[in-house]
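Researcher: Good morning. I'm working through a list of sequences from a screen, and I'd like to move beyond sequence-only analysis. For each chain I'm collecting a predicted structure so we can compare shapes side by side. This is the next one on the list. No need for commentary yet; just the structure.
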Amino acid sequence: METKTQAVQRLISDRWWARWTALILIASMMFFGYMFVDVMSPLQSLVNTKLGWSPEAFGYYAGAEYMLNVFGFLILAGIILDKMGVRFTGTLSASVMFIGACIKLYAISSLFAGSAFDQWLSSWWVEMPGSAKLAAFGFTIFGCGCEMAGITVSKAIAKWFEGKEMALAMGVEMAIARLGVFAVLSLSPRLADWMGKNDPSVVPPVAFCTVLLLIGLICYVVFTFMDTNLDKQLGASANGEGEEEFKLSDVGGLFKSRLFWIIALLCVLYYSAIFPFQRFGTNMLQCNLHISETQAADLLRWFPIGALCLTPPLGYFLDRVGRGATMLMIGSLLLICCHLIFALALPAFPSQGLALATIIVLGISFSLVPAALWPSVPKVMDSRYLGSAYSLIFWVQNIGLFGIPIIFGAMLEASNQGVTDPTQYDYTNPMLLFAGLGIVALFFAIWLKVLDTRNGYGLDKPNIKSDNDSVRLDGEA
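Model: Good morning. C-alpha cells for this chain:
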C-alpha cells in the first residue's frame, strides 16, 4: 500500500524520460532560434553586393537584435516570466520570434525591393539602405523574443531538473542550441547558392529558417501541456508556478549585490567577444585566407562543435565535482589567445589548419564559460525571482551585444577606407577589440574566483549538494 501511495505522489518531472522529453521540446525552440540568429552571418559579402549594405550597415543590423532588450524590454520580460510562468512567457517569446523573422524576410525580398515603402525608408539616413532598416527592425523584434526565450528556458530547466542533473540538462540545451549555429553555417551559403542557382540570393536561407521557427513554436506548445500536468501535481495555481509570490521590490536587492554585478559584467564582456564574432567571422576568414564564402563558413561552423561536444560532459562534471569559478578563468584565457591569433598570427600566416585549430579552441572556451556560468545562478538566487535574475544578467549582456557589433562595423570600415571589395578587408584592429574584451573578462573571472575562495559562495562546489551549502545573493552582506 505504501508503494502505491508513493507511486501516486511521484511527479512527472521525477521520471527521467518525461523531463528529458520536456528538455528536447524547449531546446528545439532554441535550436531553431539560434539558426535564425546566424542565418545571414556567412552571407556578409553577398549582402554587401546584392543588397548594397556597407560593413557599418551590417554592424547596425547585427546589433539591432539587442536594441529593445537594452532599453528595458528584458527587465520587463523577467517580470513577465516570474508573474506569468514559463508556459505563457515561452509561447509568447516563440511567437514574437516568428513575427520578427517574417518582417526580416519581407525586408530582403523582392516584394519590398523598389516599393514605395522601400523608397521612403531609403530617403533618410542614406548610409543605411531601406532593406537594412526594415531587416534591423524585424531582427529587433526577433531579438526580444529570442532573449525572452533564453531566460524562460533557463527557468524551465531549473524547475524540471530541481535536485537532479540540472547542469547537465543546461549543458545539453546549450549543446543543442550550438548545433543550430553549426547547421546554419553549413546550410545558409549552400541554400543561397543552390536555390538561387546561378544568381545567389539571401532570401532562401532566411525563408527556410523562418519556417523552422514556426516548428519551434509548435514544439513549445506541446511542452506547455506537459508543464500544466506538472503544475497540477505540484498543486500550483492557474497563473503561478507553485512558488512564493514574486514581488517587484525583490529586484532591487539584485542591484545591490556585488557578486551579481561581477557575474553580469563577466557575462557581457565574454559574450560580446563571441556572438559578434559569429556575425563577422566568415568574412574575416574569407579575407585572411583568400577562400570562398562557402569554404570560410565551413571552417567557422566548427566553432560551435567544441561547445556542442564538451558542454554536456562539463555540466556533468560541475554537478558532481564543481570548479565552476576556475572554469570561467580558463575559458576567458582561451578566448584571449584565440582572438589574438585571429588578429595577428592568421594574417601573417594564412593557414587553414591554424584557423581551424583556433576555431576549435574557441569552441572549447565557449563550452567552459556558459557551462559554468548559467547553472551557478539558481544556486545563489531565490527561485521566486530567478527569472528576473536571469533577465537582468541577459539585459547587461545585451548592452554589449547591441553596441559591440556597431563599434566593430565602424572600426572595420575605418580600417578599410577606399576598399570596395568585401573579400579584401583588414580585420586586425577589430579583432584586437575582441581580445581586449577577453582581457577584461579574465579580470572579472579572477575577481570572482578570489571572492568565492574568501567568502565561500560555493561556485567551485558541486551543483548536487546538501541544503546546508546553499548561499543566496539576497542574503549577501
